[in-house]
Amino acid sequence: MKTSRTVFSEINKKAGSFPFTLRSLDNEQRARMGVQEAVAHGLLKPYDIVQTASGTVVAEFFFTSKLASVSFQL
Fold first, then answer.
1. Residue 64: is its pLDDT beyond 80?
2. How far apart are CA 19 and CA 45, in angstroms?
3. Coil, strand or helix: which one is 8?
4. What is the spatial distance between Cα 6 and Cα 17, in angstroms, rounded to a whole number?
5. Are 42 and 7 in contact (CB under 8 A)?
6. Which of 25, 30, 32, 57 is the most exposed, fewest CB within 10 Å of its CB?
7. d(C-alpha 65, C-alpha 63), whole Å
8. Distance CA 20, CA 42 (A)
9. Each residue of 14-55: pLDDT tens digit?
């Protein structure tokens, strides 16, 4: 479909391989049709929404590491 190709090329230009929302595209209604077609043909992978039960605690840890070819002392 022409709509699918248009939406897929717009996604590639704006988001590349990163997650995106349909709201970020020009025409949201046309984008819904195009995304469904692209998912059906395996061009896009749906990003499932992850939820936790209410009352549970969720923690995230971020860190930075450095890899060097030369050894160094802390």
1. yes
2. 10
3. helix
4. 17
5. no
6. 57
7. 7
8. 17
9. 998 888 889 999 999 999 999 999 999 999 998 877 788 888
Residues with Cβ within 8 Å of residue 28, at least 6 apart in sequence? 22
C-alpha 25, offset from chain centre? 13
For residue 12, what are its two tokens? Answer: 């590639």
For 66, the token pair is: 């450095």
In order, the DSSP letters of 17-57 are TS---GGGSS-HHHHHHHHHHHHHTTSS---------TT--
What are the structure tokens assigned to 41, written together?
């043909």
Q: Cα dihedral sign for 31, 36, 49, 65?
A: negative
The DSSP 8-state label assigned to residue 73 in this structure reads: -
Unique residue bearing structure tokens 């709509």: 3
